[in-house]
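Collaborator request, handled under Task 6.
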Amino acid sequence: MRTTLLTLTAVSVALLAACGKKEEAAPAAGSAPAAAAPSELIIKIGHVGPTSGAIAHLGKDNEMGARMAIDDLNAQGVEIGGRKAKFELLAEDDAGDPKQGTAAAQKLADAKVNGVVGHLNSGTTIPASKVYSDAGIPQISPSATNPKYTQQGYKTTFRVVANDGQLGGTLGRYAIEKLGGKTIAVIDDRTAYGQGVADEFEKGVNAAGGKVVKREFTNDKATDFTAILTTIKASKPDVVFYGGMDAVAGPMLRQMKQLGIKAKFMGGDGVCTGELPKLAAGSMADDQVVCAEAGGVEGEQKVGMDKFKADFKQKFGVDVQIYAPYVYDATMILVDSMKRAGSADPAAYLPEVGKTDYNGVTGKIAFDEHGDIKNGALTLYTYKGGNREQIAVVR
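C-alpha cells returned to the collaborator:
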C-alpha cells in the first residue's frame, strides 16, 4: 500500500509539473514573441611592430598606442550596423625584419582580422602590404615613410604621417638655409627607410644649393663606425646626416665625440626619439642634434596631444616615445570608417577609409588618392640637457 501511494504521488507531481510548463510556455492571447537581442560583433584589429630587437622600445610604444585605442573603444560602447562591437587586438612582433614582417602579416590575414595598423618600419611595411592587399584588408601605417609604400597601386594602403620626400627634403634644405652647412656628409643604414630618407635629404641639400661631399653606409645592426667616421672626419664636415634608427644613431654620436667630430648631427624620425640621449650616453652637446618627426600639432591641437601623453603615462607608466599617438589615430580611423559604412567587413568599409575626414590626436587627417596623408606636417626638434625640445612645425 505504501508503495502504491508513493507511485501515485510521483505520477501526480509529474503531471502537475508538465501542466505548469505548458501554462508557462503558452503566450498570452494577442501578444507578440519577444525580439532576440542582436549578438555582439567581435572586431579584430591587427598590429605589427618590432617588439623585440634593437628598436623594441619603439615597437612597444606603437603597440601600447593600439592597446590604448582598443580599450577606449570598448569603454565607449561603439555600435556598428546596429550591433554593439567588442574590439580585440591581435599584436604581432616583426623584429624589424622583412621576412618576419610578411610572416606576421600572413598570420593576421589567416586570422581574418578586420583591419591592420602597422608596420613601424618601411622595410617591413612595404613587403607586408602585398599580403594585406591580396587579402583585401585595410592597412594604415603610423610611421612608414618610404614613398614606395603608397606607390605600389594597392587600394588597401594608407599612412597617417608625411613621407620621406617631405621629411628628408625639409631637413636637407634646413641644413643649408638655417644651419649654414657648407660641407655635408651622409650615412645611411641601407634599409628601405634609412636609404630612402638619406636620398631625399641629399636631394633637399642639392635643391638648396648645397653639396654632399661624402656618402657612406653601414647597417641597422652595426655598433662600430670608426672606419666610416674617420673617413668623414677628413672632409671636415659641419653637418653629418644619418638615415636610420636611434639604436645606431646613439653609438654613432658617442664615437663622433671620441674622434673629435663636432659637426651638427641630423636625422629623420627614426632618430628623433626620447630614448636618443640615453643611447648616446651623454655625448650629445646642446643643440647639436636636429631631427624631424613626420607629424606635428600646434595651437589648440597641442592641448589634445598633451592630454594624450598624460593619459598614456598614467595608463602605462612610461612616456610616449614617438608614434603611439599616430597608432591611436590610425586605429580610430579604421573604426570610424566601419561606423560610416555600417559594417566591419573589410570589403564594405574600405571605400570609407579613403574618404576619411578625421580630427585626431595628431591633427586633421584626410588621404589623397594614393593613401598618403594630405598636408602632412613635420616637427623639427633639437635636444638640450638631454631633453627633446621643439623648434618648429613645418607644413
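The cover message to the collaborator said: "Residues 165-293 form a domain with the Rossmann fold fold (CATH 3.40.50.2300). The two ends are 100 Å apart (CA to CA). Please let us know whether this matches your experimental observations."
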